[in-house]
């Protein structure tokens, strides 16, 4: 159906011992966007750079939002604002390996217009978005919308 590509680049800057090798790398996305990334600080990375755990949470959150907006639009709702504070939780999985075992989405949405969803309709919109999110359908991690 479709293919999507990124280019990842890393170059050694100093010695190559575990404690001191640089973890910063560039991720080039389409449209010439470049993201400086690193490992999480707990894994000797730089706190001011995006890490893979955050990027997975961002991918799930972004996909959920885009799917939600499409469903809301087709359902006749007008969305004025959508914000989310996503959390990726790192724990041991059933196999005893460290993994992102859960991603919590905490969306806040503002609607305008005559048609406003009630609590049940909003929950249904989120459930449909989750069921149809390409990224959520691609991972084993539990995704919870709060």
Could you name the key traits of this structure?
8 strands, 146 residues, 3-stranded antiparallel β-sheet, GMP Synthetase, Chain A, domain 3, alpha+beta
Please give the structural blueprint.
Layout: E1 7-9, E2 25-28, E3 34-37, H1 52-74, E4 78-83, E5 87-92, E6 98-105, E7 108-112, H2 119-132, E8 142-145
Parallel strand pairs: 6-8
Antiparallel strand pairs: 1-2, 2-3, 4-7, 5-6
Helix pairs in contact: 1-2
Overall description:
The longest helix has 23 residues. By secondary structure, the chain is α+β, with helices and mostly antiparallel strands. It folds into two domains: 37 residues, no CATH class; 94 residues, GMP Synthetase, Chain A, domain 3 (2-Layer Sandwich), CATH 3.30.300. A three-stranded antiparallel β-sheet has the order 1-2-3, with no helix packed on it. A three-stranded mixed β-sheet has the order 5-6-8. 25% of the residues lie in helices and 27% in strands. It contains two helices and eight strands, in the order βββαββββαβ.
The CATH architecture name of the largest domain reads 2-Layer Sandwich
As a percent range, the share of helical residues equals 25-40%
What's the gyration radius in Å?
Answer: 18 Å
End-to-end separation = 32 Å
Q: What do the pLDDT scores average to?
A: 96
Q: Any idea what the shape is?
A: elongated
Largest sheet: 3 strands, antiparallel
Supply the CATH superfamily name of the largest domain.
K homology (KH) domain
């Amino acid at each position: 159906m479709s293919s999507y590509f990124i280019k990842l680049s890393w170059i050694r800057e100093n010695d190559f011992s575990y404690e001191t090798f640089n973890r910063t790398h560039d991720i080039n996305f389409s449209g010439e966007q470049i993201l400086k990334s690193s490992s999480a600080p707990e894994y000797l990375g730089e706190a001011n750079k995006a890490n893979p755990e955050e990027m997975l949470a961002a991918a799930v959150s972004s996909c959920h939002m885009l799917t939600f907006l499409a469903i809301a639009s087709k359902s006749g709702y007008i969305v004025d604002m959508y914000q989310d504070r996503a959390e990726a939780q790192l724990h041991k999985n059933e196999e005893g390996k460290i993994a992102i075992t859960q991603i919590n989405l905490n969306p806040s949405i503002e609607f305008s217009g005559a048609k406003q969803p009630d609590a049940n309709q909003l929950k249904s919109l989120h459930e449909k978005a989750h069921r149809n999110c390409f990224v959520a359908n691609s991972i084993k991690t539990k995704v919870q919308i709060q």
